[in-house]
Write a structure and sequence with these properties.
about 280 residues, alpha/beta, Rossmann fold, 6-stranded mixed β-sheet, 5-stranded mixed β-sheet, 9 helices, binds adenosine-5'-triphosphate
């Protein structure tokens, strides 16, 4: 369903009514024919111009990571249409590294999977060695890495692969301050000197305001606002302040209501594709 178009298209990413559905585990006593599923994302449409830097906001469980794997082409959508112009790379805490392989082997596997030449893989390896600053840990299996070290490796590999579209999902939150700053400086260069398209998923609002041009706020799997970054951040902050002012009882009630609204009873495979996908 995801198309990759390289022609002179002003948009890096176009989402037309996309939805993502997860199956819910059966509750005790639930009948086997009561097929319940859950909207992780529902009917989201946006157009992101090439070179835009989009800050993705939303409270826990709102659907940001689900969106990141969809944008990266790792996860399929269940309805709607997605057009992507260019190569994408996801940088996240779960970086998709093979835990059994060493850091160096991971670079080789990634390069080989992408069909790169030996020479290109060698260049990428040198870039990763320089940027990640992992020293001899590169010869150790990734399962022996700390989460910050995995983030260093994942970030460095994605940078070296030089994609057109970066999707950065909370990746800086586990790195130490020095490395996070180094990554931020590099991302600013990608934005200002190379005109890369970046999706930046983060709960760090001051950083989002400073770095991004456009804001995308999702809540309960739905798109609430897509627009100028400071406006979207202001509205999102007001919402978070209101949530914080609620009593525990009110919060619980609201969370349960949000959850209920996302449930699809008697879900039938493929019904969304029929509803939303343009023929
Ligand atoms: N593989 C899965 N199977 C079932 N449900 C899932 C799966 N992955 C995510 N979900 C659910 O989908 C919803 C969206 O999750 P997602 O991880 O995208 O949220 P998020 O906005 O990234 O949250 P956070 O800020 O906590 O990282 C959540 O309710 C989550 O429980």
């Amino acid at each position: 369903m995801a198309k990759n178009t390289y022609e002179t298209n002003p948009y890096a990413v176009e989402l037309h009514h996309i939805s993502k559905i997860y199956k819910l585990k059966k509750k005790d006593g639930q009948k086997s024919n009561d097929n319940e599923s859950f909207y992780a994302l529902r009917d989201i449409s946006i157009k992101v111009e090439k070179g835009d830097v989009v800050g993705v906001l939303g409270t826990n469980g709102s659907g940001k990571s689900t969106l990141s794997v969809i944008l990266a082409g790792i996860s399929d959508i269940d309805g709607g249409e997605m057009n992507v112009s260019g190569e994408q790379a996801l940088i996240s805490i779960n970086t998709g590294l093979n835990q059994q392989l060493t850091g160096l082997e991971n670079i080789n596997v990634k390069g080989a999977l992408m069909g790169l030449s030996k020479k290109r893989i060698q260049e990428i390896t040198e870039d990763v060695i320089e940027f990640a600053e992992l020293g001899d840990f590169l010869y150790q299996p990734v399962k022996k890495y700390s989460s910050g070290m995995k983030s260093r490796l994942g970030f460095s590999i994605s940078l070296a692969l030089d994609p057109d579209i970066f999707i950065v999902d909370e990746a800086l939150s586990v790195g130490d301050k020095g490395f996070a700053q180094k990554c931020m400086n590099r991302m600013k260069k990608l934005r200002d000197e190379q005109g890369k398209t970046i999706f930046f998923i983060s709960h760090a609002l001051p950083q989002v305001r400073e770095f991004c041009k456009t804001g995308m706020w999702i809540e309960g799997g739905k798109l609430i606002e897509f627009g100028e970054i400071n406006e979207v951040c202001d509205h999102y902050s007001e919402y978070v302040d209101k949530l914080n002012a609620m009593s525990d009882k009110e919060k619980k009630k609201m969370l349960n209501e949000k959850f209920e609204q996302r449930i699809i009873h008697n879900y039938k495979e493929g019904f969304l594709s029929k509803l939303f996908t343009k023929k």
